[in-house]
Every structure is written in C-alpha cells, then in structure tokens.
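Hey, I'm writing a tutorial for new members on how sequence and structure tokens pair up, and I'd like a real worked example in the thread rather than a made-up one. If someone can provide the structure for the chain below, I'll link this post from the tutorial.
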Amino acid sequence: MRSMSGSRRPRQSPIFLWTTSTAWKSSTTCPATGGGGGPCNLAITKKEVHDKEVRITIRNNGSSDVTISGINLTWPQATNGNLRQIKLDGDVIYKSPEIGGGTATITTAQLVSDLNKRKIKKGQADVLKFVFAKNASTTLANYTGTVFFGTGCTLTILP
C-alpha cells in the first residue's frame, strides 16, 4: 500500500476484542412522526444477555416522557423456558402468569397499572429486562421483539 507521497506504509492488522459478557450495541431508533426531537424519539443503546435475563437499554431522546403500552416478544422456548417477568430498571411491569410457548403479546391490561413504573423519562435511558425460567440464549437472532409506547410509537428491540 502506498501513501499519497509514494512511500510505503506498514500493513495494519485487524484488532479483535474479546469479552466475558455477551453484549451488543446498536443504534436502532424510533423517530418522531413530525421530525427529530419529538415525543417519540427512542434509541436502543445496548443489548445483552446475562444468565436468565435479556436486557435492552432504551434511551428516550424525545421532548417528553414515554410510557410502555404493550410488548410483543418471541424467544427460544426450549433454551429459555417460560417468560417469568418483565422489568423496567428495578420495577416489575409484568409478572404473571408465566408465559410459555416462546411467544408473548402483552397488552396494557396485562402490564402493571402504575404508569410511573412503565415510564421512560425524556433525556434518560432505562433497561428493559426479560426474565426467563432458564439461562437465556445468547444468540440474538433467536428473538424478535417490539415495544409499543402509545399510539404511533413502536420500537423494534430484537433481534
């Protein structure tokens, strides 16, 4: 490889980083209907699997708070077992009954009624945690997921 001046540059080797945790980062966004900065401007900043949990960090870059109104999720049932809980940071937003079969469609009626527990404040990030009966698969391609934040605001969280 030659530089603009014609002198030879040393070849660069790729750098690989290994980690003991399984974590992924992405920049999936849910833009506001009327342009950037509106009430529905969400981004996935991190995805990770830790033991029995699949964790998705959601950042609210919008101009107002958003509240989770529903969740659709599929997972590898044979590996993960039943879905036991869904948490937003430390708050349990779905608890029972446990859901089997690898598919869940959770509506507002099934979520905790306290809106503050389902809220992501503007300018903040919260971790959405799916808690399973067994250790969760670390292969994100085995999951699909969508979170609904009221009318017109849908965020794809998995894969």
